[in-house]
Amino acid sequence: MTKGKFEVFVSSRNLQYYFRLKAANGQIILGSEGYVSKQGCLNGVASVRTNAPYDSRYERKDGYLNYTFNLKSSNGEIIGRSESYTSSANRENGVTAVKNYAPGADLVDLT
Predict the structure, then answer these.
(1) Kind plus residue range of the DSSP H or E element containing 44
(2) pLDDT digits (tens, 9 = 90+) for 18-38
(3) Do residues 77 and 83 make contact, with C-beta atoms less than 8 angstroms apart?
């Protein structure tokens, strides 16, 4: 399996740090909240790496043709949000992709 990657970047809109996890095909499969410091953002990446393998850390949300998930840490805090999917099966593929890619994904610093 080809590796995914975490990209760390600064938003020009609010000057906060964010990360996104991309699959090997370049598709974004998980995004973060904004962080005021780069170290906070890197800690978020580390938390995703740690928590991604555990199915119990995924909170699945269902809406009309809108299926998403949040990845939570052991204390219940959301550390990553998925893109929207049009079916629950596609969402589960997204969860599986995060489980597979996050632990060994490269880190690319775009700051």
Answers:
(1) helix 38-51
(2) 999 999 999 999 999 999 999
(3) no
Contact 82, 75 (CB under 8 A): no
Strands (DSSP E) contained in 1-111 are 5-10, 17-22, 28-31, 58-63, 66-72, 78-81, 106-109
The CA distance from 107 to 111, in Å, is: 12
User: pTM of the predicted model, to two decimals?
Assistant: 0.92
The single residue listed with the structure tokens 């893109």 is: 83
Q: How far is CA 34 from CA 21, 40, 85, 91, in A?
A: 14, 9, 22, 23
97 vs 86: CA distance, rounded Å: 16
Please compute the mean of the pLDDT values over residues 98-107 and round it to a whole number: 96
Contact 72, 61 (CB under 8 A): no
Q: Give dist(CA 54, CA 64) in Å, integer.
A: 27
